[in-house]
Design goal:
Blueprint: H1 6-10, H2 13-21, E1 23-27, H3 28-36, H4 38-46, E2 49-51, H5 56-72, H6 77-86, H7 103-119, E3 124-125, E4 127-128, E5 131-132, E6 134-148, H8 152-157, E7 168-185, E8 188-197, H9 202-209, H10 212-226, E9 231-233, E10 239-241, E11 249-258, E12 261-270, H11 274-300, E13 311-312, E14 315-316, H12 320-324, H13 327-334, E15 339-341
Parallel strand pairs: 1-7, 8-11
Antiparallel strand pairs: 2-15, 3-7, 4-5, 6-7, 7-8, 9-10, 11-12, 13-14
Length: 348
């Protein structure tokens, strides 16, 4: 499939960093988008395009997250509601109570969850130097990938002429993200991630067992220990030595909207430490494949979409209509008011 977007891709921040500085800086969402489909990776991950009418699930989750951030920083219920209303996604959520995910439902969750944690707190929040570890951003070196300049497409991408003799270009990869909470649960230390959901139980928990997002969070948490985040403090002032007792895995803080009402539950996901290195190596390998495929796209304009991902149980890919459009209309559609450019960064 032809995508007439090579010049826009060349001018993107991700590709400029790759070509100019021999660096790749990405988060899990960008990686998953790149890895799922070449076409979606170019439009969604590199060009950061997203539908103007975003998914109600993402908008709803964003507002709940904003309220939870305010809560765990010490804000009361009124402060949490204000934080939700100040979230950029607030106006995109339906008003009233006719749907499961509405502005009223966000407020109901805030009030009910605040009572739940006051009466039966699920975990203790860890702090570092007096500051609660809430929405902790990170950017960490993941490793390096070596690209063979035997490929004519890679030589073209990096501007090599026929007289240059370098056999490889080495790319430094940085992994970035934002961890919701660092917590103590059942006398063990956990990386904690909030999730809004409509399902619960083993099926819900299983989706995170091999999740790149969760393994990546644990990897980042372990790397932060090496960088000095090794002595954290419980609310009672007791110091937790993570060098001796590192994180056990990821704790999912699930907020479920059920037909029977709201349900709050945590799901511990223990992750073997051996899986961290496997994840790191596998991620670097997939990124090498991506750069090799990207270099060919930059010369030919051709991509191979993963058609099985065009329509899934979650609905259509956000770029379904772009890929279905005639070739000469694809770039115009992507740059029309149907899409905007995301400015979100985990470092903000």
């Amino acid at each position: 499939m032809h995508l007439p977007l090579t010049e826009e891709v060349r001018n993107s921040a991700l590709i400029k960093g790759l070509i100019t500085h021999h660096e790749l800086v990405l988060d899990n969402s960008t990686f998953i988008t790149l890895d799922s489909c070449n076409a979606q990776g170019i439009m969604g991950a590199i060009l950061k395009k997203m539908p103007t009418n975003n998914s109600i699930h993402l908008d709803f989750g964003s507002c709940v997250h904003s309220a939870l951030e305010e809560k765990f920083r010490g804000g009361g219920v009124v402060d949490q509601i204000t934080a939700a209303k100040n979230d950029p996604s607030w106006d995109a959520i339906p008003g009233g109570n006719h749907f499961a995910k509405t502005q009223d439902k966000v407020i109901e969750i805030i009030q009910a969850y605040h009572v739940h944690t006051e009466v039966t707190p699920d975990f203790d929040l860890l702090s570092f130097k007096g500051e609660p570890l809430v929405e902790q951003s990170f950017r960490l070196p993941l490793g390096k990938i070596k690209l063979s300049m035997a490929s004519p497409y890679l030589r073209e991408l990096f501007g090599f002429d026929m007289h240059e003799t370098d056999e490889f270009v080495t790319i430094q990869v940085y992994w970035q993200g934002k961890i919701d909470l660092f917590t103590r649960y059942n006398n063990e230390n956990w990386i904690t991630d909030h999730k809004t959901t409509s399902i619960m139980g083993a099926k819900f928990a299983d989706t995170f067992v091999r999740s790149s997002q969760m393994v990546g969070y644990l990897w980042a948490g372990m790397e932060l220990i090496k960088l000095g985040f090794n002595e954290l403090t419980l609310p009672n002032g007791k110091v937790v030595d993570l060098s001796a007792h590192p994180y056990r895995g990821v704790l999912i803080n699930a907020i479920a909207i059920r037909k029977s009402g709201l349900e709050f539950k945590v799901f511990p996901i223990p992750i073997p430490y051996t899986r961290l290195e496997e994840w790191r190596e596998g991620t670097l390998l997939r990124l090498r494949y991506f750069v090799e495929q990207l270099s060919e796209f930059m010369v030919t304009g051709l991509v191979a979409p993963t058609r099985e991902h065009c329509v899934t149980k979650y609905g259509r890919c956000p770029f379904f209509d772009v890929c279905e459009a005639p070739m000469h209309m694809r770039g115009k559609m992507l740059n029309s008011p149907l899409f905007n450019t995301s400015t979100w960064s985990p470092l903000d």
